Amino acid sequence: MVEHNVSNIQTQKIENTALENNCAAVLSIADTVRTTLGPKGLDKLLVDELGNRFITNDGATIMLSIKTIHPVAKMVVEIADRQEAKSGDGTTTAVVLAAEMLKEGKRLITDMGIHPTLIVRGMEIGIQRSIELLKQMAVKIDIEDARLAQVITTAAGSRMDGDQVVSLVSEAVSLLKNSKGKKRMINFKKSILLINKPELEDLVFDGFVLQRQFHDPQISNQLHNVGVILAKMDLKESRESWTMEMKNYDDVVRMKENQARITKEISDSICRTGAGILFISSPQVDELLLSNLLVKNILPIHVSNEELLTIAYAFDMQVIRRKEDIERGTVVTIKSMCYDEEKGLFFFENLAQQNVVTIIIGGATKVTSQERWRSVKDGISAAQSALNDGIVAGGGAVELCISEKLKEKSLNGGVESLGIEVVAHALSSIMRQILTNAGFSAFEKMTEIRNKSGEYGININTGKIENMLEAGVIDSAGIKINALKSAAEIVKAVLRIDRILIAHSPHNAVVGKSANEPNLKG
């Protein structure tokens, strides 16, 4: 009996050691980024192996720059990467939520002996209820709503050159809002193009901008009311190696003549469309075709497949994929094309029916320009999410309100209520961290506000209680929902890990092993 108890104690110690180790890894990562949360958050100086320096308070940038070998820490970085890819913002919130849930979950397991499965089950109930409440509290808005500008300000206003960054994004959104084209759901991430050029001044251009260093002198640097077509076809010329393989001279001549005939047919078809600009994504284009187009005053511009699809979306065009479809393809007229040789940029100005805006982001240095680019990107992502999923009060107000509601639910009792309290504790940590970063006593301020509704928070400039929606501190509900889901995913996985084992190479897994022979080393 004594031996059995000793064995249980040793097993418990091993499990607790694994949990302590994993939690420490997550908390270490969280402590790196938690001080960046909120308008008063601090910046980090990142230095890579080559000595390149980056100053930022963007959680995603910091997370993806961290070098770590701990497997659980890598999981946190992956979750942060997924949050950034899905929502474009909210990475710091997701990591802070994960750290607080883990800290509280670990306490219940190690100090109170609660089984991880029970805690996870309660957490799932708490997460689900939180998401339901967020959706209920979210206020739907459209692109005409003035509060959309406040969402942008909340997301990007506290970043480097925040006022200028907010102005750039707001101007771009305003141009899209005033477009007289056919109504469709605007996708800001596709309709607002970003170009990072440290040597240039900031600019919001009503149209599409393409970076190219070469412009054929046969074509004017400026074209007005010019038609555009897009082509994704194989237009490469016959290779010399092909003709060398042919033993019959007549076959070579016939192949050359056939190539010339096809080239002329393509150039004549393009000419008959009336277009003055051809965007082509073929990596190789017959030189004879290029010459024929230039003679007919048609400007061919090489673009990547990604750029071609961007242009197609921007101008609502079809891409021509066969030469038979050239004359039946869509030709869109743009107001003007201007090539700035000094900047190496093509400017394609919109007519009323197009929905594309380009923001050129400058900066005093490459480092500051990159940080301003990230800020603009966050502002755009927040605006898009607000349109899709609605808005809620910012500053941690909505999280604190939901936290109080979850605590009321947990009063029903049962072990699972402890998991609900884990989620409630984590949600309240958002306001706590924002206030701490602003230099306030978080406990004191949050005590003052606990009985208020979900719209009330603390003005971090005055320390007074204010209605966050009326004060213009507004967040996207969608970003908060995704952050909560991301945090819960990593926490549930870590709490259920009771051992850390070293696995064989996956190339040797299973193969040659008997059913009783494990493929892991303890």
Which keywords apply here?
single chain; 522 residues; alpha/beta; GROEL, domain 1; GroEL; seven-stranded mixed beta sheet; elongated; disordered C terminus
What does the secondary structure layout of this molecule look like, with pairings?
Elements: H1 2-33, E1 44-47, E2 53-56, H2 59-65, H3 71-87, H4 91-112, H5 116-137, H6 147-156, H7 162-177, H8 188-191, E3 192-196, E4 203-205, E5 207-211, E6 222-231, H9 240-245, H10 249-272, E7 275-280, H11 287-295, E8 299-302, H12 305-314, E9 319-320, E10 332-340, E11 345-349, E12 357-361, H13 366-389, E13 391-393, H14 397-410, H15 416-437, H16 442-449, E14 456-458, E15 465-467, H17 468-471, E16 474-476, H18 477-495, E17 502-503, E18 520-521
Parallel strand pairs: 3-12, 6-7, 6-9, 7-8
Antiparallel strand pairs: 1-2, 4-12, 5-11, 6-10, 10-11, 13-16, 14-15, 17-18
Helix pairs in contact: 1-4, 2-3, 3-4, 3-18, 4-15, 4-18, 5-14, 5-15, 5-18, 6-7, 6-13, 7-13, 10-11, 14-15, 15-16
Model regions low in confidence, pLDDT < 50 over at least 5 residues: 1-14, 508-522
What percent of residues adopt helix (DSSP H or I)? 40-55%
**Number of DSSP strand runs:** 18
- Please tell me the overall pLDDT: 81
What would the CATH topology of the largest domain be?
A: GROEL, domain 1
Tell the overall outline.
elongated
Q: Based on the coordinates given, report the CATH architecture of the largest domain.
A: Orthogonal Bundle
**Number of individual domains:** 2
Descriptive report:
This protein has 522 residues and is an alpha/beta fold. It folds into two domains: 2-138 and 391-498, GROEL, domain 1 (Orthogonal Bundle); 147-389, 3-Layer(bba) Sandwich (GroEL). It contains 18 helices and 18 strands. The strands form six sheets. Strands 5, 6, 7, 8, 9, 10 and 11 form a seven-stranded mixed sheet that branches. A three-stranded mixed sheet has the order 3-12-4. Strands 1-2 form a two-stranded antiparallel ribbon. Strand 10 and strand 11 (345-349) form a beta hairpin. Helix 6 (147-156) runs antiparallel to helix 13. The longest helix has 32 residues, at 2-33. It is elongated. It starts with a helix and ends with a strand. The relative contact order is 0.17.
